[in-house]
Amino acid sequence: MAQQRLRRGILPACLGVAALTVLSACGGGSSAGGGSGGTDATTTARGPITFVTGKDNSNVWAPTIQKWNSAHPTEKVTLKEQTDSADQQLDDIVQNMQAQNASYDIVTVDVVWTAQFAAKGWLVPLKGAFALDTSKLLKPTVAAATYNGTLYAAPFASDGGLLYYRKDLVPNPPKTLDEMWSMCSIAKAKGIGCYAGQFSKYEGLTVNAAEAMNTYGGKIVDDKGKATVDSPESAKGLQMLADHYKNGDIPKEAVTYTEEPGRIAFEAGKLLFHRNWPYVYNLAKTEGSSTVKDTFGVAPLPGVTGPGASSLGGHSEAITKFSKFKATAFDFLKFIEEDAQQKFFMEQGSLAPVVESIYSDSALVAKYPYLPTLLTSIQNAVPRPVTPFYSAVTKAIEDNSYAAIKGDKPVAQALKDMNSAITAASAG
Amino acid sequence: MSTTIADSTTSGRAQGTPPSRRRKGGLEAGQPRQAFWLVLPTLLLLTVVIVYPLVKAIIMSFQKDSGLDPASGLFVEGGSAGLSNYKHWLLQQCNVAGGGTIPCPAGSLGSQFYDALWVTLFFTVATVVIEIVLGLWFATIMNRTFRGRGLVRAAILIPWAIPTAVTAKLWLFIFAFDGIANHLLGFVGINPLLWTGDAWPARFAVIIADVWKTTPFMALLILAGLQIISADVYEAAAIDGASKWQTFRRITLPMIKVPLMVAVLFRTLDVLRIFDLPWILTQGGGGNGHATSTLSILVINQIRTGFNSASALSTIVFLIIAFAAFLFIKFGGADVVQRPPTVSKPGGRRPFWRRSTTPADPSTDVAADVPATVGK
User: Fold this and answer.
1) CB B107 to CB A201 under 8 A?
2) Which CATH code for domain A162-311+386-426?
3) Residue B190, SS3?
4) Span B198-206, average pLDDT
5) Of A214, B76, B200, B268, which is most buried, counting CB atoms within 10 Å of its CB?
6) Residue B283, pLDDT above cutoff 60
7) Contacts of A25 (CB under 8 A, 6+ apart)
8) What would the mean pLDDT of B258-283 be, rounded to a whole number?
9) Mean pLDDT across chain A, nearest whole number?
10) Which chain B positions have a beta carbon within 8 Å of A424's beta carbon?
11) Out of B72, B197, B283, whose CB is closest to A255?
């Protein structure tokens, strides 16, 4: 009975599949690329647009858009919030772009998605009529929004790693990595962990592994997107993490740390040094459970001789190819780069400005003493690999550096595998 | 299927068989046509929600993912792929720039197919076996009459009522480095484990959490089977001097075989496509970086990289699961479609106890004495 049913079902299905495969093979070849901007009517058209961004937890966008709307009653901006999960935001944008949704006028792009969206031809290049003045902006934030030599998005907020340290135990923060590791004896005497970043197997590990390798001068991919990670410089960086994990300077549980467990451990006084993002500062200062409120300080990430190379975080805003009112969208991009808005983002949402001069604003620095440190971090930051195949590349980095740090795989082998996995990923 | 089953099905259903089969013409002559129109909306709905996505996925699996044009730096459509997407997963062939293939390097998704397959099968076997044992035990407890039975039943069922995502988060806290699990291990002098970091602890963390969550489901289905066994049967067995073990093997087990096999089938299919629990607990990590990556996790990871290749993978996963279901229905007796578990009918005993189709020595076969009682 079951067999009969099966057989009856399979034959037509196979025929259908065969027929449709032939059809679609014949009908193939419609290009996904080709988003060269063009000079159609939508380039100069103005009108109401939609602004798409991840969940606005710190309520920066509603007031900003209100401000814009009262000044531009005929070119109103509507806010469309996505979820607060980066993966879901990415999926949402990808689906809407594949559906050529014209109501996604401006999309908020995580720095690591820029290349993929640009290569798919979904973003309007910011050149010609849409040339954006980037002279005031921090260079790494511009580099992260650039693909193949063309700017595709307007940096909106940046982010860089900071070294949180216990100033009651180490009065002067370490400037170099060697200095930091030599201070681990202090942690050992106190019975606490010495250093931890985000070493759980997720995007945060890519950030941390890339920082270690970039700091020693390694490069994950070159300007053409070719894998160059299998180098002696990268090996030094990754080896450092593996060695210090093995000797206990990096506590055993650090391979389960994402941002939050790491922050909680630091606030509980269990870590001497902790690499994390600027959002930790306010929490560690004010949160009830923090035992280090007055005993922690912030320093740039240590490097080989000077500041280390942080991985760059943050978001940019890009105009989509399907927008009907691109001129309005471009004006809105210029609007968010203005000092007033950038300052508001910082004050309201602790979002690191992309305009360099704001870091020396005395009123802001008085309120957020870590700003100059953050500026150093961002100035020395290296964007994560700019490649259209980012999801596969980050997977290759995560898997192999995780195995290397835990000592499950020799560093040399891990880098070799990482290199060929990135190469394979880029071949599609 | 053996003839015994067919026979007994017919006899068991004698009263319920549509008369149209026996009576030609008459009042019910138009029934088949009427039935067709009644079933049609369902068929259309199934076509839209099941057949279309399935066929679409299969079509996509024969197309290449869009590749990068080195000159413009833009993506271009990949065109027809032939079988290359399937070869990619099954034979571990990764493309290299400029054509040709190499064995997929570690850290690429392609290299993880067989690891993911074994891990998924391991999860399936381990969780289902543990769940059968625990489920039987729980069901037996719930089936007894004692003070506070309602409370015990409720307590056993609670884990099933909690959404999987919440369960996974709960266990994530339990398995945190300074979580309860490690504290408990500390009491017996075991050093704290990296529950979500090392390969085997991570795998067992997933198994423990899954067993905790889904044993109630198993217990519930088994309980339904237990409750239809008449007390008379046990009484008769007791009079015949059957031991506890004999009673269990010869009466309880055969009587609950159908609900048990249905439960096992559901659970097996469930675990074969498990995603949420390991994803939240470990992101598929542990050990070498993918020690708890199941097939579904691999599919989701691949979707972010290339739809068409992911379609090929999900088609492979679909075939694996369909094959497992086929095996169960064909050989396991988990006949979900044809024979709903209505055991209490006279003679209904036979199909559930395959062995009794061969004549057994009445002097030793306790079950053989049972029909006298059951048949009334």
Assistant:
1) no
2) 3.40.190.10
3) coil
4) 91
5) A214
6) yes
7) B62, B63, B79, B80
8) 91
9) 87
10) 94-96, 102, 104-105, 108, 110
11) B197
Q: How far apart are CA A370 and CA A279, in angstroms?
A: 11
Assess A110–B contact: CB distance below 8 Å, yes or no.
no
**Helix/strand/coil (H/E/C) assignment for every residue in B280-311:** HHHCCCCCCCCCCCCHHHHHHHHHHHCHHHHH
Residue B240 in any domain: the answer is yes
Could you please report the per-residue DSSP string of A239-287? HHHHHHHHTTSS-GGGGG--HHHHHHHHHTT-EEEEEE-THHHHHHHH-
B157: containing domain: 114-305+357-375
Q: Which residues of B touch A268 (CB under 8 A)?
A: none
pTM: predicted TM-score of the whole model, two decimal places? 0.78
- Tell me whether residues B74 and A21 touch, CB distance under 8 A: no
B195 with B202: CB under 8 angstroms?
yes
Q: Give A178-189 pLDDT, tens digit per residue.
A: 999 999 999 999
Domain spans, chain A: 41-159+312-379, 162-311+386-426
Show Cβ contacts of residue A349 under 8 Å, excluding neighbours closer than 6 positions. Answer: A57, A58, A59, A60, A157
pLDDT digits 0-9 by tens, B353-364: 444 444 444 444
Strands B74-76 and B67-69: antiparallel
Helix intervals (H) in B13-78: 31-46, 52-60
pLDDT band at A191; cut points 50, 70, 90: very high
Domain count, chain B: 1
- Alpha carbon distances (Å) from A60 to A67, A315, A349: 11, 14, 6
Asked whether residue B362 is assigned to any structural domain, the reply reads yes
Listed in sequence order, the residues at least 6 apart from B234 whose beta carbon sits closer than 8 Å to its beta carbon are: B247, B251
Structure tokens at B108: 């690429």
Q: Average pLDDT in the A24-44 region?
A: 48
pLDDT single digits (tens) A339-392 = 999 999 998 888 999 999 999 999 999 999 999 999 999 999 998 888 888 988
CA closest to B108 among chain A residues: A421
Residues A71-99 have pLDDT tens digits of 999 999 999 999 878 888 998 999 999 89
Do the domains at A41-159+312-379 and A162-311+386-426 have one common CATH topology?
A: yes
State the smallest CA–CA distance between residue A408 and chain B in angstroms.
6
User: For the segment B75-121, what is each residue's pLDDT rounded down to a tens digit?
Assistant: 888 788 888 889 889 988 887 766 778 888 888 888 899 999 999 99
Q: Could you tell me how far CA B12 lies from the centroid of its own chain?
A: 28
Other CB atoms closer than 10 Å to residue A367's CB: what's the count? 11
Q: Whole-angstrom Cα distance, residue A92 to residue A89?
A: 5
Distance from CA of B134 to the nearest CA of A (A): 31
Is ipTM over 0.90? no
Q: What is the DSSP string of A388-410?
A: TTHHHHHHHHHHHHHHHHTTSS-
Asked if residue B202 lies in contact with residue B282, where contact means CB atoms within 8 angstroms, the answer is yes
Residue in the block written with tokens 């319920």: B16
The answer to whether A121 faces chain B, any CB pair under 8 Å, is yes
**Is residue B257 situated within a structural domain?**
yes
Percent of chain B with pLDDT over 70: 80
CATH architecture of the domain A41-159+312-379 equals: 3-Layer(aba) Sandwich (3.40)
Q: What is the CATH number of the domain that holds B187?
A: 1.10.3720.10
Question: Does any domain span residue B214?
Answer: yes
Assess contact for A315 and A298: CB atoms under 8 A. Answer: no
Nearest Cβ partner of A421 from B108, B282, B304? B108
Contact between A253 and B67 using a beta-carbon 8 Å cutoff: no
